[in-house]
Amino acid sequence: MNAIEVKHLSKQYVIAKRQEGMWGAIRSLFHREYITKTAVEDVSFSIEAGEMVGYIGPNGAGKSTTIKMLTGILVPTSGEVRVGGLVPYKERQKNARQIGVVFGQRSQLWWDLPTIESFELLKEVYHISDRRYRRNMDTFTEILKLDEFFQTPVRQLSLGQRMRADIAASLLHDPSILFLDEPTIGLDVVAKERMRTFIQEMNKERGITVILTTHDMSDIEKLCKRMILIDKGRVMYDGGLEKIKEHFGTSRILIVDVEKDISLNIEGVEVIREEGIRKWLRFNREEYTAAQLIQQISEKTEIIDISLQEPEIDSIIRQMYEQGL
Ligand SMILES: Nc1ncnc2c1ncn2[C@@H]1O[C@H](COP(=O)(O)OP(=O)(O)OP(=O)(O)O)[C@@H](O)[C@H]1O
């Protein structure tokens, strides 16, 4: 069964146009002009129950707008959206029972209360039975070490602690679908790793469907087999990580130690770094094979050592963002 089904989904925002200057401001009191901004355009995808999918794209691509439509906060301008069989904006409360949401930049916990009290309040809000509450709290506390800061008010938690508390809170009512928006933003390496391990475990052990929005490609690499890439509101790619490397990652880097420190001017090849006799050469595998390139270099100087670097997913995506999709 598909956990999420999105068909030809679009969202336009209608924004009042700002008129310049004082006269403009006065004029707009009587005559307001509006412009429409398309944030999501004709987006279709389906996500199976138990899948973990990365939803990525540059700033302003339309990720948050999509997530808001999936969680029922926003009403689509057109198209269809179903989450666990429900139309989120029509059945917001019912939908809230089957989804968990974590926004890395914002907390859903009560700022001034000791952390444990936020959990107790959520227990009431979601009508969670004592048994379920205990079971979940025990599991989450064991993995996320929540008891280290149960008595600390949320506003005094470190970012890492706050994220641990937030993700636990989002799962307290056993949702089957989890939306994570930048869950590792600002965390140090250890905290990131802990968060990723927890997400992975919840997906594997409990079969929770996860949609992960992030700008950190290593989140995606570690967690998701599939990613949906959007730009300017449209889906540009939907598939596996490996395939994106094949499709878009046409550049390779040859690292070569040469005998003489000479400049290696080869047409279509970019020297991206030099450290004495060691050079990093970026080339396009559609224009050159590594063997051809090595041949060309060896005509100029003797080669002492070589190695070939495949592009990292991070650099491929960065390149795609920079050059447009
Ligand atoms: N409430 C709003 N009113 C008008 N325009 C909006 C509103 N929210 C978002 N937008 C615009 O819609 C587009 C998509 O925004 P959205 O927040 O969905 O992008 P995003 O991919 O989540 O970006 P980021 O990675 O920066 O969070 C942007 O051009 C943004 O300026």
TrEMBL record:
<dbReference type="InterPro" id="IPR003593">
    <property type="entry name" value="AAA+_ATPase"/>
</dbReference>
<feature type="domain" description="ABC transporter">
    <location>
        <begin position="4"/>
        <end position="257"/>
    </location>
</feature>
<dbReference type="InterPro" id="IPR017871">
    <property type="entry name" value="ABC_transporter-like_CS"/>
</dbReference>
<keyword id="KW-0547">Nucleotide-binding</keyword>
<keyword id="KW-0813">Transport</keyword>
<dbReference type="InterPro" id="IPR003439">
    <property type="entry name" value="ABC_transporter-like_ATP-bd"/>
</dbReference>
<dbReference type="Pfam" id="PF00005">
    <property type="entry name" value="ABC_tran"/>
</dbReference>
<dbReference type="GO" id="GO:0005524">
    <property type="term" value="F:ATP binding"/>
</dbReference>
<dbReference type="InterPro" id="IPR050763">
    <property type="entry name" value="ABC_transporter_ATP-binding"/>
</dbReference>
<dbReference type="GO" id="GO:0016887">
    <property type="term" value="F:ATP hydrolysis activity"/>
</dbReference>
<keyword id="KW-0067">ATP-binding</keyword>
<protein>
    <submittedName>
        <fullName>ABC transporter ATP-binding protein</fullName>
    </submittedName>
</protein>
<dbReference type="InterPro" id="IPR027417">
    <property type="entry name" value="P-loop_NTPase"/>
</dbReference>
